[in-house]
Design a protein that fits this description.
The complex is a heterodimer of chains A (about 220) and B (about 425). Helix content of chain A is about 50%, strand content about 15%. Chain A is built from ten helices and six strands. Classes of the chains: A alpha/beta (about 220), B alpha+beta (about 425). Chains A and B meet through helix 1, helix 4 and helix 6 of A and helix 8, helix 9, helix 10, helix 11 and strand 1 of B.
Amino acid sequence: MRVVIAEDSVLLREGLARLMEIGGIEVIDTVGDAEMLLRSVERDCPDLVVVDVRMPPDQSDEGVRAALVLRRRYPDLAVLMLSQYVEERYAVELLTGQMRGIGYLLKDRVADVEEFLDSLRRVADGGTALDPEVISQLLVRREGDELDRLTPREREVLSHMAEGRSNAGIAGVLFLSEGAVSKHINSIFSKLGLPPTDSGNRRVLAILKFLQGNTKDRS
Amino acid sequence: MDIAMPQALPWRRAPRVIVRGLWDGRTWLALVHLVTGSVIGTLGGIVIGVLFATAAAGFVTLIVPAIALAATLLFSAALTVVQRARHTAYLGMVWPKDQSPPVTFTPRSLIGVVGSAKTWRQFSYHVIAGVYGFIAGMIALTAWTIAPAMIASPIFGLDSGLEVRHFGMFLGGVILLLAAPWITRGLSELDALFARQLLVGTTRAQQLEQRVTNLTESRHSTVDAADAERRRIERNLHDGAQQRLTSLAMNLGIARATLTDLPEDGKRALADAHEEAKQVLTDLRDLVRGLHPAVLEDRGLDAALSAVAARSPIPVRLKVDMERRVARDVEAVAYFVISEALTNTARHSGAEHAAVEVTLEGDVLRLKVVDDGRGGADAENGTGLRGLSDRVKSIDGTFKLTSPLGGPTTIEAELPCAS
């Protein structure tokens, strides 16, 4: 796996590179702003880019905008966004259109090395890694009470599914057996009236669509 | 407090007060004021009248009325200076600072002068002073000259024999002499009254209006400065402490993942340090997020509120209905109010649920934060709530807190946001 890191803080840029080395991931370039990122991707054709949301010159959402450009130009390129804060609005923008190989995580998550590398690999493989914060932000905007029909445990499982975890991943986090997890998942899908889907992106897509479903259309 | 009222003056002191008017300095200053006023006022009134009549009558040509009008206004302005000086010199009148913009020789400024109420107020004083100044001066002078003559009339009667009418004249003369100071002062007071109303650069209402404008501006700049400061702090923490802490937590994480053969104590210390660093990072993020999030600027209030609601330790339902974005300061206040209200709810209300509603109706942004807690919140005691109310008022909004004992607590705010 070949990775380009775009992060304006030198400290974090180097830290991330070191972290990936430990995970056996090849970092082919590190850049400090969005423009250099676009150039680097064009030149080096990486498999994955790790992008900071706030970068020079304006320190606002340069990273998100660069990521949207990249995803349009290189549909196979996996993108992992990192940020000091996550915003559901940015997540929705990133997920709109295409959901292959996308991640959006708080920078805090790099502190948990194994889990972070796990998310990284999942995204590189075309999967999804959404920060739990994004999921809870989507949840506060829910109207209606379909979600109230879920048991607390089922809600937990739902959140982890939305983050993009596999059944095994969920089982690991919640200390359940995989069998118990798939029982919860079946129950969730029937309670929410969603068509049963196998694990992977289609499942995440269905759940995210559901989470956004009742919120107003904002384009 | 009765002392301050004129009618409390004891009547038996009245004769002394009346007589004292004769040698009171103010009387003689008032007389000088009236005499100078009659000269200046009459001459000035004649000149200004002629100039204005020329301006008004010479309309067949364009250049004559224009010049005459300019001369009228220039003369009126000069006469205003003289008349003001007279009021200051003899009556001690203090003129408030003229806050109208200085006149320059640009078309816009000159048209402004012609169109301004101030110009024509002053003009009208000079017209009135032309008539009133003359009459008042004459009355005062007449009183002061006739009274001694009347008092002296018995002397003229000595030759032809004293008659009752001489004593009548004498008595009339004394009364007139005693009245003269008060007639003089009354007439000059009336002149002062005209001057106060007409010669001022800005009326009291205009001064107050100006003051309100100034205060509003200074309040806005204070609020803007506070917002800018919050943004600066947010930026500083984001670029500094947050990055360093993230790096620290990451390195501790790397250490924890790689140093697997540490002794048990070392392992535990490392694990604690790692968890601690992550917790500080979360705390700092929550704090900084409340200051002024970048997303508020980039995507607006609606987008920024998701994280505010999600961050709350008690479940929050969020409903935002805004068709458009509103002014930045309004967004900032709304964000601050909702964010603080939810913090307050989580800390003090004991609530299990909270709901936030934001609705933009026309030019009013309505905020509503409701919780099912124990109530009893008081805007006067809780500094947090007081701060919210102040913040809302800083942009001329209204703030209402309803919190009966036993709950529920409702905070409602209406923020004007004309587009």
